[in-house]
């Protein structure tokens, strides 16, 4: 599942910096979600689709996606899911990242994407 080396995590780190700038400026939550999916797909060449789902009772709603009409569910070779948790550590959503590559993510990507999911959750509680 993991491949590459340290060079693969650089684009993810750059996307993270862009996303964190929006989070720490206390931008509107929907705006932060949109910029998160946009930054990850535009900056990280091996990320082909990103979606953020928020839970409402028993349902989940796709609130931001790099492409709403095609989630690549049947075309992707790799998928990572990161829980979006509130300040009480309750899971309130999920960030899903998909790639068409068979070996794309490294350990640093996982850590960075977990940090992003945590930051956008924090932001959703602040607005």
General description of the model:
The chain is α+β, with helices and mostly antiparallel strands and 127 residues long. The protein has one domain: Beta-Lactamase (2-Layer Sandwich). It is 43% helix and 25% strand. The protein contains 3 helices and 4 strands; from the N terminus they run ααββββα. It has a 4-stranded antiparallel β-sheet with strand order 2-1-4-3. Helix 1 packs parallel to helix 3 and helix 2 runs antiparallel to helix 3. The radius of gyration is 14 Å and the shape is globular. The chain starts with 5 loop residues before the first helix and ends with a helix. It comes from Shouchella lehensis G1.
Q: Structural class of the helix and strand makeup? A: alpha+beta
What is the tally of helical segments? 3
**Strand line-up in the sheet with most strands:** 2-1-4-3
Rg over CA atoms, rounded to whole Å, is: 14 Å
Organism: Shouchella lehensis G1
Protein name: GAF domain-containing protein
